[in-house]
């Protein structure tokens, strides 16, 4: 049984103080949770404060991005080792907003994924199609290319231990959500793609999240799907009450 993983992507929200308060509130509400892995992903400026707040709790700490080099003349960038040093356990890689606004490509996703593993971080690799691509019936083609490009050259052990987040671009922050069945169909396709690359054992152990307007009122239906193992959450992760309700979902098959 794959342990569900619910990760909150705070995007460009929360100061250091606000982030620490949110983590403390979340920890209090979820202190009895043992069957779901929780991760919060604050902006860089709030990571240190959040690291202090998650200490002694079951909540993991993730960053929203990083560079693939260990160090160097890359003004404004953050190295993998810096994230590890501050207490991060996870890092989001290739989010659609990074691809859309900051020229992220499958190649840089691949470089960052390999660098994350080298630094001892668990990468949450994001894939997903735009509305135009979905309407053109190109979802599997687009997502397949992203998975193959992002995971190229990984070892089977690495592939088994990363997390893939399927986030249809058209459902992020729009209030629109793929139906549970449609979301599961794409997650199942991702699992088959990984199986073709690394073998069925790896595919069976891989955790695949769904992301895209996930809320307390739709989490149970999504988590009841056989190939959905968690959620990468945006807006609903910015309040302890709503995020805790996602973590304490019911209905996982």
Question: Can you describe this structure?
Answer:
Strand 1, helix 1 and strand 2 form a beta-alpha-beta unit. This protein starts with a strand and ends in a 6-residue tail after the last helix. Strands 1-2-3-4-5-6-7-8 form an 8-stranded parallel β-barrel, surrounded by 5 helices. The chain has 12 helices and 8 strands. By secondary structure, the protein is an alpha/beta fold. The relative contact order is 0.15.
Number of strands: 8
Tell me the helix content.
40-55%
In quaternary terms, these chains amount to single chain
What's the overall geometry?
globular
Q: Count of helical segments?
A: 12
**For the terminal residues, how far apart are their CA atoms?**
10 Å
Mean pLDDT: 95
